[in-house]
């Protein structure tokens, strides 16, 4: 592979994009509401990439992403990622997140503990929010405390963590209720 390239490809949820360089995938863009917006996002992120036919190893990544988005078990474990310019801490987070099995989730705190940086929950959340390798690094499997399916990174387009987890068969709490928000701060009631 010489230079950076990108392509747009069909999936069950719409037209996704993938960009690559000499060392592997540099980013994945899940579909925006319209294909032109997906292309625009790819151009903003990778202005030096040219639209090219993907090489074999990128074709393998595309097939795995498409299978995953169909609800299948796309094997993305062998996909090479180009982490040039990504902070070392984020790289560690992404490597750990890639090891989370399909259908399972972890909290930001559990990821921080596994990386032996238990006070770095916010840093883990920041790394997840900046994940350029959607689906290949399954950041949708990392949830806030209480297993709430919260926001996905900007590269997630119009797709939600909740939806991705549902096609994988993972069990989550999908939204907070008023009781979830108020109960932890409500003073205990005195018993007569």
Shape: globular
For the CA atoms, what is the radius of gyration? 18 Å
How far apart are the termini?
Answer: 75 Å
Q: How much of the residues is beta strand, in percent?
A: 5-15%
Please, how many helices?
7
Parts with pLDDT < 50 across at least 5 consecutive residues: 177-181
Give me the oligomer status: single chain
Helix content: 25-40%
Q: What is the succession of H and E elements?
A: EEEHEHHEHHEHH
Give, in spatial order, the strands making up the sheet with the most strands.
3-2-1-4
Mean pLDDT: 84
Assign the structural class, choosing from mainly alpha, mainly beta, alpha/beta, alpha+beta, or little secondary structure: alpha/beta
What descriptive keywords fit this protein?
192 residues, 33% helix, 4-stranded mixed β-sheet, alpha/beta, single chain
């Amino acid at each position: 592979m010489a230079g950076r390239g990108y392509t747009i490809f069909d999936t069950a949820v719409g037209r996704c994009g993938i960009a690559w360089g000499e060392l592997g995938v540099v980013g994945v863009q899940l579909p925006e509401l319209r294909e032109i917006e997906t292309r625009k996002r790819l151009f903003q992120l990778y202005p030096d990439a040219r639209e090219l036919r993907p090489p074999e190893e990128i074709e393998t990544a595309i097939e795995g992403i498409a299978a995953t988005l169909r609800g299948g078990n796309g094997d993305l474990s062998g996909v090479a990622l180009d982490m040039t310019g990504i902070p070392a801490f984020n790289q560690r987070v992404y490597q750990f997140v890639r090891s989370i099995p399909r259908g399972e989730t972890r909290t930001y705190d559990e990821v921080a503990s596994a990386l032996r940086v238990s006070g770095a929950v916010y840093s883990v959340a920041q790394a997840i929010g900046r994940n350029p390798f959607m689906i290949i690094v399954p950041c949708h499997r990392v949830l806030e405390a209480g297993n709430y399916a919260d926001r996905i990174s900007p590269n997630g387009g119009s797709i939600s963590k909740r939806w991705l987890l549902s096609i994988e068969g993972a069990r989550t709490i999908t939204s907070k209720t008023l009781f979830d928000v108020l109960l932890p701060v409500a003073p205990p009631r005195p018993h007569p």
